[in-house]
Amino acid sequence: MSVPVKPRRRWRWLILAALLLFVLANVVAFNHAWRFTHFSTEAGQHTANPEQLSLADKLWVLATGIHNPKPRNAQSPAFFFQTVTIPSPNGSLESWYSPVADARGTVALFHGYTSDKSHLLHEAAYFRQLGYSVLLTDFAGAGGSEGNRITVGYREADDVAAVVQWLRERQPEARVVLYGVSMGAVAILRAESELGVQADANIVECPYGSMLQTAENRFHSMGVPPFPMANLLVFWGGVQNGFWAYDLSAEAYARRVKTPTLLMWGEADPRVTRQETDAIYAALAGPKQRRDFPGSGHEPYWRRHKVGWQSAIWDFLTRRNLTSSAM
Predict the structure, then answer these.
(1) Cα gap 122→300, rounded to integer Å
(2) For residue 55, how many C-alpha atoms fall within 13 Å in the half-sphere facing its CB?
(3) Which of 117, 140, 206, 302 would bridge 90 by S-S if both were Cys, CB 3.0 to 4.6 A apart?
(4) Is residue 281 part of a domain?
(5) Distance from C-alpha of 223 to C-alpha of 282, rounded to nearest angstrom
(6) Taking the model in full, what pTM does it have?
(7) What does the pLDDT look like over 91-107, one tens digit per residue?
(8) CATH of residue 112
(9) Amino acid 62: pLDDT
């Protein structure tokens, strides 16, 4: 028997509607991915964190994408520094270099997503207090560095490698400690895992587990089911920037990182879960220490736990024999 005309039309409309929804979802995801990984030249404030948005704002962001102006350095160091330019495959990087006399080594500091090097001045001042020279760098696309693209840790690993090379060329025997926050932490782990970077120690704060996981966490913060939009967002973000974003995984990188590493995490972090942090810490292949901070979210831990944050760093560097003056 032949299928009646009306059921045929119904199936045709259902297939057409499903196709249109699929196309619309990909168009929205493509736009979100572009705005997420490309800073704009428009003035104004970056879209607030998901948990700070009203219902109307969340709906608008879901429909149009985030407002993502290029981060600009809001202040300069109060301590002595000089601005240097470091070449990277991603373009020229702007850095602030501040040497100290009889330094124990140099700490290279790397900021997080939608941030810049001026947000790490407090941390840099503490490392100088401990006797380390410091080098703060804007990732490509941020602050005073070239470009407007950000890949949430993937290509930023090339910037980490460029900074370490710059330091090694000028101070071959000096100790190098890498300090990174969120995206900066992931960039450090990838640089050591896949690009051959070798440091004397790492201090990483709140690295996310994988690109897919961090996208899913953001949708959860919006109160929206992550599938399928988080998956499409990761897919298009990788396509637009020339890499397979599903392989962007701090946990996978950690398995090949033998550098002594201090991992820090805030127990109230809405964007990096305990499960992600536990997996990264378990995967680290070298000597490791961990410090969790109750009540702290995705934020600088020294704000709520200044003494605890400082003591965690000092204890780690002391155990690694990095607190004596370098020869």
Answers:
(1) 10
(2) 0
(3) 140
(4) yes
(5) 30
(6) 0.94
(7) 999 999 999 999 999 99
(8) 3.40.50.1820
(9) 74
